[in-house]
């Protein structure tokens, strides 16, 4: 029986995130931690809930186990209703054939049957690896008012930044007449955010045609969007002026965390209208011991702070011992920093142990320590070092 929906969300969450190096060796980019208690994927999932979209297909591929377990039935994001829900959709065999997702468009193509179950008027294609708070319903209303076949969310960037993005050139009515991929001399600064709304019955046929094209790279930006433009389809740019960050590099992830500590941060995690939901691990409140010092920092549940913390984002369950000084750093879930350590400008992944007397970084470049590493007593981790998971540092 078809459960009719106006719109279904398809969330692309299979990215390897190779430019995050050690942080994505054992997890997909959307599963990377951010902001003290969140993972990156919490943001598009929460945006769907806040926008009234109750049916979300989550397309996983690279290192999917953590994401699959984390999302579960979607209950933490209020996406476990009888009439909708969050559905994890890895690649699978069909008859005697099967492929990994060959590109963003192919990921949707391989799940046509899933979408057809809901007979939607529209689909919205989302990226699972951006920090963004956005009301997708406003974009949908704009899409409908324009009578668009496709609406692409864009962000105005600087002229220099525009050279790194897919750029949408539009007329006075915001109708797209040209798409340029990373142009050397941009004609506009309207950068694609990788968020698309399509009329389902129309894009369905484009996906089928593209899936059967051996010359295609099966990508929305490289193949589907240019083809729709060539065919004269009604395509519009939707200008977004809220918070959006592509946290695809070590520096950008560190900076996005540090932005939360600004006096007036651009993203408001306390906004009741755009609340960010996440898994609740039912930890006790954080504890700051007598003699400890905490300045301009975020502390999540379950932290125990006995040393000095300044300008840091400290995730759930982190312990920082007496005499340790941690500055300008992001310390992720369940990491332990023993006594008399010095840490400056670091991204330290989950379940790391920093033994007594260690020195990590010097505050010039971001130093990264991957999942489940152990720094033995008095070890030194050089400024800007990249330490991969499960390493023992002497």
Automatic annotation (TrEMBL):
UniProt record similarity statement: Belongs to the bacterial/plant glucose-1-phosphate adenylyltransferase family.
Binding site residues for alpha-D-glucose 1-phosphate: 101, 166, 181-182, 192
Reaction it catalyzes: alpha-D-glucose 1-phosphate + ATP + H(+) = ADP-alpha-D-glucose + diphosphate
Site (Could play a key role in the communication between the regulatory and the substrate sites): 61, 100
Name of the protein described by the UniProt record: Glucose-1-phosphate adenylyltransferase
Short name of one Pfam family: NTP_transferase
Occurrences of domain Nucleotidyl transferase (ranges): 9-262
Domain Glucose-1-phosphate adenylyltransferase/Bifunctional protein GlmU-like C-terminal hexapeptide: 293-364
Subunit structure: Homotetramer.
Biochemical pathway: Glycan biosynthesis; glycogen biosynthesis
Record's signal peptide: none
Classification via Gene3D superfamilies: Hexapeptide repeat proteins, Spore Coat Polysaccharide Biosynthesis Protein SpsA, Chain A
Species for this entry: Anaerostipes hadrus
Entry annotated with the keyword Nucleotidyltransferase: yes
Described purpose of this protein according to its UniProt entry: Involved in the biosynthesis of ADP-glucose, a building block required for the elongation reactions to produce glycogen. Catalyzes the reaction between ATP and alpha-D-glucose 1-phosphate (G1P) to produce pyrophosphate and ADP-Glc.
One GO BP annotation of this record: glycogen biosynthetic process
Matches recorded under InterPro entries: ADP-Glc_PPase, ADP_Glu_pyroP_CS, GlgC_bac, GlmU/GlgC-like_hexapep, NTP_transferase_dom, Nucleotide-diphossugar_trans, Trimer_LpxA-like_sf
């Amino acid at each position: 029986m078809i459960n009719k929906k106006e719109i279904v969300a398809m969330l692309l969450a299979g990215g390897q995130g190779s430019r995050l190096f050690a942080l994505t060796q054992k997890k997909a980019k959307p599963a990377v931690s951010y902001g003290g208690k969140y993972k990156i994927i919490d943001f598009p999932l929460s945006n769907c809930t806040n926008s009234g979209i109750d049916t979300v297909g989550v397309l996983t591929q690279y290192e999917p186990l953590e994401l699959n377990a984390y999302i579960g039935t979607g209950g933490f994001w209020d996406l476990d209703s009888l009439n909708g829900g969050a559905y994890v959709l890895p690649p699978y065999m069909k008859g005697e054939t099967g492929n990994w997702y060959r590109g963003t468009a192919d990921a949707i193509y391989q799940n046509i049957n899933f979408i057809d179950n809901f007979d939607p008027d529209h689909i919205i294609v989302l990226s699972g690896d951006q920090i963004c708070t956005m009301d997708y319903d406003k974009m949908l209303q704009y899409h409908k008012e324009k009578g668009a076949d496709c609406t692409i969310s864009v962000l105005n960037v600087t002229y220099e930044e525009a050279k790194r993005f897919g750029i949408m050139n539009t007329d006075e009515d915001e109708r797209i007449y040209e798409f340029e991929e990373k142009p050397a001399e941009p004609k506009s600064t309207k950068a694609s955010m990788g968020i698309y709304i399509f009329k389902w019955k129309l894009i369905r046929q484009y996906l089928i045609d593209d899936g059967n094209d051996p010359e295609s790279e099966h990508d929305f930006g490289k193949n589907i969007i240019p083809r729709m433009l060539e065919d004269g389809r009604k395509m519009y740019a939707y200008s977004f002026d809220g918070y959006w960050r592509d946290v695809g590099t070590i520096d950008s992830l560190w900076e996005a965390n540090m932005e939360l500590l600004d006096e007036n941060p651009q993203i408001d995690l306390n906004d009741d209208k755009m609340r960010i939901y996440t898994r609740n691990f039912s930890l006790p409140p954080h504890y700051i011991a007598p003699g400890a010092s905490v300045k301009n920092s975020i502390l999540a549940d379950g932290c125990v702070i006995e040393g000095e913390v300044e300008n840091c984002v400290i995730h759930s369950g982190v312990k920082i011992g007496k005499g340790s000084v941690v500055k300008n750093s992001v310390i992720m879930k369940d990491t332990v920093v023993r006594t008399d350590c010095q840490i400056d400008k670091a991204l330290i992944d989950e379940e790391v142990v920093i033994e007594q007397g260690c020195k990590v970084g010097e505050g010039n470049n971001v130093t990264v320590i991957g999942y489940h590493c152990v720094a033995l007593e008095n070890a030194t981790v050089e400024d800007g070092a990249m330490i991969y998971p499960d390493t023992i540092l002497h």
